[in-house]
Prior knowledge:
- The structure holds two protein chains of two kinds.
- By secondary structure, chain A is of the alpha/beta class.
- Chain A has 19 helices and nine strands.
- In chain B, a hairpin with a 2-residue loop joins strand 13 and strand 14.
- Chain B starts with a strand and ends in a 15-residue tail after the last helix.
- By secondary structure, chain B is α+β, with helices and mostly antiparallel strands.
- Chain B folds into two domains: 5-39, no CATH class; 45-445, Orthogonal Bundle (Cytochrome-c3 Hydrogenase, chain B), CATH 1.10.645.
- The chains are: A alpha/beta, B alpha+beta.
Amino acid sequence: MAKVAFMQLASCWGCHQSLLDAHLTLLHVLPELEFVYWPAVVDFKLDDLKGYPDSSVDVGFLEGFCRTEADVANAKLMRQKCKIIVAMGSCAVLGGAPGMANLFSREELEARKFMDEEFVDKGSVVPTEHVPKILDAIPDTHDVIKVDIDLPGCPPKTGNIIGLIAAVLGEIDTKVDISKSMCDVCPLQNCLLDENKLCYGPITAAADPIGRIAEGYPVLGEFGLTNAVHQANAEKLFSKITSKPMDHSEVRQSVEALMFILGSNPLGFLAKKADPIRKVRLDPESLSMKSVLDKEIVDFTADGYPEIVNHIIGAVMADLKQNPEYDDSAKTVCSSCERNLKDKEVVRYKRDYEGLPDQETCFLLQGYVCMGPLTTTGCGATCIRANSPCLGCYGPAANVDDYISKATSYFPSICTDTPENITAFFKDTAGLFGRFCIPTSKLGHKISDSKMEDK
Amino acid sequence: MSPDKVYEVEPVTRLEGHGGLRLVMSEDGKKVKDVQFNITSTRFFEKLCEGRFAEHVPRITNRICGICPVPHHLAATKSVEKAWDVEIPSAAYKLRQLFINAKQYSSHLLHFYALAAPDFLYGPFAPAAKRNVVSIIRDMPEVGAMALKMMDFGQNICTAIGGKAVGPIAGIVGGMRNPLSSDLRDGFIAQIPEQLEYVKKTVEIAKKVVTDYWDVIANLAVTETYYCGVAKKVNGELVHEIYDGDLIFVTPEGEKKVYDPQNYLEVIGEHVPSHSYATHTYYKPAGYPAGIYRTNSLAMINACDRMATPIAEDARKEMVKACLGDDGKVIHNTFAYHWARIVETVEAFELCVQYLKDPEILSTDIKTLDVQPKAGRGVGMVDAPRGNLIYDMTTDAEGICRKLNILVATNHNIAGIEKSVKHAAQQIFEQDVLSKIKLPDPWLK
């Protein structure tokens, strides 16, 4: 059984609730896991977790952000004990909605909470007895410890969490032998490549158990790159890819295979801008081409990869670059939004309390501020389907470096209202655009900016 | 002075927040000197909402609690509506009632099955590796499946109405944004007979727990405090109500006092302890610490004269009779909280059925269109699954949040919890009450 730990830093329990909302699926998932620490559900104490040898827990999930010194210590303890750290939810990944506390100094925050005599008893002071010290500002979790996997969302969709657990556990429970390829252990009588089907077996490491390939499914790079490429079959794979444009299912299979082989996260929406497969759509001009065996492929070279593997990846990228079936649906929330975009301009921005948005038309075209165009998808446009504009809880899309600065230029630029009206409308750019990401934004760090200068 | 013995529980588990418990005993271990419940986390939501669009606050503070985001979302929305004098359409009111009762249903069941039941099914002294809901799912898969299907029912209604069950978004100043579709409604109605059977089974399980652990309920931590609840006056009677009621205080002697939530500051004081980031609220007329009170299910049962629905009212009467006999006025038995929670669960289910079957629940007239911001102040109060929840919102003329005060269940409960834990510790360590209390054989081993 895989050992799993859940840590709550400063958080709301919502990510846990989202996991528990898998409900009947839990009957299959929970008994497969050994929970070594999960204070929300299981009675093990901090000392129990401290008692485990270093790196002996398979996966550790962090919910929340570091608000106190105890949170920092707990995050570091998790890093020490766990092989894989998953930042679960927007607080851990981006800083979260309560990360807006970074818009104020610690003194301002404490004064309001503990010393405002309109509400609290006269003469009250900040508690100090047996409570951990409050940090001056909420740091980016990634600056506190190394994070292996980001799982954004406020909360992450239940399916995203279960999918991630399944993907990570699949890796843990399978023995991978990189000194062989899947072709070396393939039980099929007839090679799929000979039947003109895609299979990334020649470049994929051998696995035990062998998985779905035994039932005739193609290998899609699930177990990473092998050190012993099956050269003959790899050449067959290269000519298969370059023979004609890939169809819809081949595109999907190839994107999945490249994600595994290149070590991108298996969940598409987590992919980063620098990923080659993302680059095909976001920055195609940066890709240079070359000719291999009379085929035009992308000049892709990764250190340590055999030449044929670089060629296969380059061939897939060249195909994706022109393939209309590759819609890069992992791009923004708009890609999973079904609303109409019949007109192209925003006449006036509206506050959310004005009127009632119609269910058919793009929120922006109705004047409601919707973060969809700047937000990475993964949620399936959940809020939009409930007739509420996107707030950006999954974080900036791959081509957005900083939410606040991007949104501050984007929203005024698509509106035909007067500059005066637009300026008057956006009274709270930090709160509207930085709702989930102030601690990880390049802007808005009253405290940590000065800290950075001190360094 | 002799040195003290200190016992620390870090963290307190099966709790949705962040806390540690500290028990200070005399050196010989015979005298309980102090009990502290240290709430070790805070996120400063009140301050960080200053400067935000007030109508956005319900989509910020719904992140205070992942278990009860619906009550936060609705209490925040109500506070802005009060500040701006906004009335909502009756269909929106009904959607919100269905919304908050569905949340109450799933959250109470989560509490009973995932947080509380492990103690009763495996016994309070079972090993930590056993004493949890994961073991229940392994050892009693049919009960686990039933519990999960019940939570599923409540959470799915929350998703249907709120867009999301965690971090809901569909409430808006002036009503709701998203009408309920007949397809979804029909799907929920089709599940009612099965859910009703589950509710009955849950009541049976709860009754067995009550019978088995009666000695504990009747004798351990029967702690006198004030109680704070929500109820609505109907024909001179205080009727149990979680979305739209008055603020009720019950004295330790059982006298009920009714207040307009808008005037909560006249009766609720906030003490800042030196050992907890959650402040301790108290009943102002009695002062601190005399005015320490508790909230949540038992307080709600103490605050009302009757439940809003028939099966729940029968269950309440049975509970009151068992705990108080024929003439008592207020239940102080801490362990009766679980029973009270089941009574509330039954009511939440009956209300969900009532609202699902109301044709108006499908209405698309769910939002007042002429909402105008203004400088104002308003209080929005609901009863969340863990207790009373108050939002006090001040906005400027442009509808920007300028000041916000939030009192959550933790504030209301924490001093009362400390008091009852200290009481139990005294009984256990000073009076050796455990040797006199009869504990049943665990159901599961």
